[in-house]
């Protein structure tokens, strides 16, 4: 298309060859229209390479139309080679050498150009082929890397989904057995059974988190059941799933404060933040909920060593902080759940410690 427009503009500079230039422009536009046909997307990968042959022919026609001036042909020939290098294997680039050379030389011969001009083909063509081969090598490496990453991602997704589904069924049976034993067990055994039940709950949440990752990756979103809830009740219920000593966690939530959230997802957010704060930070951990500028703000602040500024954003990536005690999905899931609510998740510096903050649009802002 660009070559066609340039041919039309050339009519103004060379009216004597207007008919030839118009013919070149028409050929360029027709070739461009053919290249845009949707059938090429369904063809074999190398089939569009046939478009290169009429393209070389049009380039030769353009050189002849301009009276043997190859100043416009050379750059477009290199561009044509670059296009081919991005899409086709190297053998096609080498096969192009003969028609490309003919497209460049034949018009020059027909217009009686001197040997010096004809000799330029022995400089231009090797350069065009060399540039194309370099581009093809880089494009091939990028395609191979992308295919390898796609295979790894597919394997990871299948592994996570299988693990999550296969773990939940036996966990349900284990939990039922533990709860049944707890009803008639003496107090010392009850404490041990409670610890076992907490661990089964933790593993269940991990499996659900892996399923959330798969749902977010495959669907790009999560379905939420958002309702207005008392914030203090939500926080207290989430705290019941955390094993913490007295004084480890402090709650700063007003009695009148409400949250317009999906109850289950909010609990998942808060449990992840609390677990992260108690694992990597230091007590006391302060849970605070306030309303600011039409948004409700959940803040979980610890008094540990903090997080360097350069790492705060990376902490919310997938597998960013995996280790012996986790796989690094907690904060990433928090960010995805916050985004599903229409809010944000981020880290703020504190002295000492760090505050993990999640915002939610309030019900009043929805109205």
From TrEMBL:
TM annotation in the entry: 21-41, 61-84, 91-110, 116-135
Compartment annotation: Cell membrane
SMART domains: HATPase_c, HisKA
Listed EC numbers: 2.7.13.3
Classification via Pfam families: HATPase_c, HisKA
Residues of the Histidine kinase domain: 162-364
Catalytic reactions of this protein: ATP + protein L-histidine = ADP + protein N-phospho-L-histidine
Gene3D superfamilies: 1.10.287.130, Histidine kinase-like ATPase, C-terminal domain
InterPro entries, per database record: HATPase_C_sf, HATPase_dom, His_kinase_dom, HisK_dim/P_dom, HisK_dim/P_sf, Sig_transdc_His_kin-like_C
Record keywords, A-Z: Kinase, Membrane, Phosphoprotein, Transferase, Transmembrane, Transmembrane helix, Two-component regulatory system
An example Gene Ontology molecular-function term: kinase activity
Group of enzyme by EC: transferase
PANTHER family assigned: HYBRID SIGNAL TRANSDUCTION HISTIDINE KINASE C, TWO-COMPONENT HISTIDINE KINASE
The protein, known as: histidine kinase
Species: Paractinoplanes ovalisporus
